[in-house]
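User: Working on a comparison across species. This one is Phosphate-specific transport system accessory protein PhoU from Bogoriella caseilytica. Can you predict its structure so I can line it up against the others?
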Amino acid sequence: MRTIFKQEIEQLGNDLIAMAKDTSTAISAAATALEQADLDLAQRVIDADKRIDESQRSVDEQAVSLLARQAPVASDLRVVVTALRLSSTIERMGDLARHVADVARGRYPETALSGRSHEVVLKMAQQAAKVAEQVVRLLEDNDLDLAASIEHDDEIIDAMHRQTFELVLDENEPLTRQEVVDLVLLGRYLERFGDHGVSVARRISYLVTGDLTNAVVEVPEV
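Assistant: Here's the predicted structure for Phosphate-specific transport system accessory protein PhoU from Bogoriella caseilytica:
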C-alpha cells in the first residue's frame, strides 16, 4: 500500500512539472507572437490554455483523492497541500500567457506597440519566459538556490514594469490611446507572471524546509 502511495505522489509531481512545461511553452510563444505579430502563434497559445486548465483539474483531483484515501501526515502532507496550491498558481501563469497572446492577436497585422514601449515589453516578456523555465527546473530539482534566484530575478521584471509607467507619463513618447492601454495591460500581465513565479519559489522552499516564513505571495487578480 505504501508503494502505491509513493507512486501516486510521484505522479502528482510529474503532472505538475508537465503543467509547468506547458506554461513555459505558452509564455515563450506569446512573447514571440508579440514581437512578430504572429497571428497563428498567438491563436495556438490561446487554444492551448485549455490543456493547462484541464491539467489543473487533474492535479487537484489527484491531490484531493490522496488526502481522502491516504490521510498523509508530515512531509507527505506538505507535498499534497503544496501541489494543490501550485496547480492554481501555474494555471494562473498560463492565463497570463494567454492574455499576452490575446493582445498580440488583437493588434494583428501590426505589433501591439512600437519604439521604446515595444522594446521594454519584449524584454519583460523574455524575462517572464526565463522565469517560467526556472520554475520547471525548480519543480524538477527542488533547488533552494534556484528558488532564491527566481525571487531575485523578479526585481528585474518589477523594474521594467516601472519603466512602462514612465513611458505612459512621458510627454515625448508618442503613444496612441490604444498603445497606452496595451502598454499598461501588458506590463501588468507580465509583472503578475513574475509574481506567480515567486509564489512557486516560496512554496517549494516551504516544501523543502517546512518553514512557513514568507511561504506565500499574495498576487492580486488581473
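For your comparison, note: Residues 35 and 47 are 19 Å apart (CA to CA).

User: Helpful, thanks.
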